[in-house]
Amino acid sequence: MPQQPDPRAAKLRALVLAAEHFRQVVAERFGIGLTEAAAMSHLRAHGSLSARELAEATGLTPSTVTALLGRLEAADLAERAPHPTDRRRIVVALTAEGNAYLDRSEAWLADVLDGVEGADAEEVDRVLDGLGAAFDAQSAFIQEPAAQE
Predict the structure, then answer these.
(1) What is the CATH number of the domain that holds 49?
(2) For the whole model, what pTM was predicted?
(3) Tens digits of per-residue pLDDT, 91-106?
(4) What is the DSSP string of the chain?
(5) Residue 2: is its pLDDT beyond 80?
(6) Which domain, by its residues, includes 72?
(7) How many domains does the chain have?
(8) Which of 24, 27, 89, 98 has the most C-beta neighbours closer than 10 Å?
């Protein structure tokens, strides 16, 4: 007998699609592509990253990240800078303009959260933290070789 789909999974998929649409609208508003928006989000979340780390975080190839960084630099949204402790390495960091874009985007995200009726801030924080941890755990599981069977 086939297993019935979990209606919560359908709601979660709808939330993911809404978030992806939000990122697309924000990227279009700022005149950048989705790849640039995703890279900027990773830089905001993790701070300065090497090009290799950014490639791993975004799932892009190193050559694609090189081109991406060129576009971000040309738009004055990110810059390459010497690593703070290892002069042989270069890191990628958001510029003041890149941070300003993300400040505006995060204000819009805060407006989304303000629109959640019937839930207090602590409850929303708990749910968001739980969803983030669950997505991370599920992603790690899916990446395991045994999960490929």
Answers:
(1) 1.10.10.10
(2) 0.86
(3) 999 999 999 999 999 9
(4) -PPPPPHHHHHHHHHHHHHHHHHHHHHHHHT--HHHHHHHHHHHHH-SB-HHHHHHHHT--HHHHHHHHHHHHHTTSEEEEE-SS-TT-EEEEE-HHHHHHHHHHHHHHHHHHHT-TT--HHHHHHHHHHHHHHHHHHHHHHHSGGGG-
(5) no
(6) 17-117
(7) 1
(8) 98
